[in-house]
Amino acid sequence: MKTAIQKAVGIAALVLALPFSASAEGVKSLRETAVGGAEHPAENYREIRDAGGLLPRDFVQQPPLVPHSVTNYQVTLNYNKCMDCHSWSRAQATGATKVSLTHFRDREGQELSSVSPRRYFCLQCHVPQTDAKQLVDNVFSPAPGL
Amino acid sequence: MNKIKKVWAWAIGLVFSAVGLAFVLGIIFWGGFNTAMEWTNTETFCISCHEMEVNVYQEYRNTIHYNNRTGVRAVCSDCHVPKEWWPKMVRKFYASNELLHKMLGSIDTPEKFEAKRAVMAQREWARMKRNDSQECRNCHDFSYFDYAEQAGRSSNAHQKGFAEGQTCIDCHKGIAHKLPAIDQGFGDTLPGALPADVLHPVSTR
What we know:
Chain A is mainly α. Chain A has helices spanning 2-23, 83-86, 91-94. Chain A is extended.
């Protein structure tokens, strides 16, 4: 009984998957590579340059964009390079913005005496910029009050 | 009379051939010595020990001194072995300590390496601090830094730092390898973490 059901499910799954596997060849990612194909080689990376100042923010809760190069910055179990300039003790010496006070809260809203570990991977939210062509048109504009 | 002349000629010949022999031997010995010195400065030599190959070498392969736009590289010895004769001999002498620890197996697993990294890194920082980052300056001469060409963050930090008598290693730690655990105030402190101010010691010069 059990095996019969398993077989039926298996066949149904196969039949359902068939059209997808057949057409996956034609599907392309935004970067124009086939879905199953290899990614573009690394030499297509764009060089990130320092903007030389802060970048404008477009909405209130936006994580500010990173206005400088982050190439080869170590973020390992042992060490987080971003904090070498952005921590409260280093900010004055380096001229970097101090990490936001909100980053000292855990997810229950409790204030901590140190930066919350859930903020460890800065680049998860703060992203550097290049002058790349937009892949998709974007018509977003900030609220007039901002 | 003739006899004296003969002895003279013989003596002179002897002296000349002795000098000649010493000269030739000198070349062979010195050449061999230099060849050995040069060979022990190659990347291939350094990574012939797996302690160097699986840890620091793999990390360095992701950095600017391994591969970059222009293909000008810095290999292990460029940063770790002085170019000047006497400091080089001293460093090579200390390298015999590495042989000892190779035999003792002090860092023969990644775990042991990681446990000793803080000790080794601090020794290397102290050495570079003592010689005013001589190895970095062999390639990067800061009196020729073009501050207009550098990014704003670089040029600000450099002009301020050099005016205060700081040296490259005061700010550029971890330029080629992973850093040891540093206590940066994220949640709980990692066991054995160094205090954050080892990275930026107060300048004394």
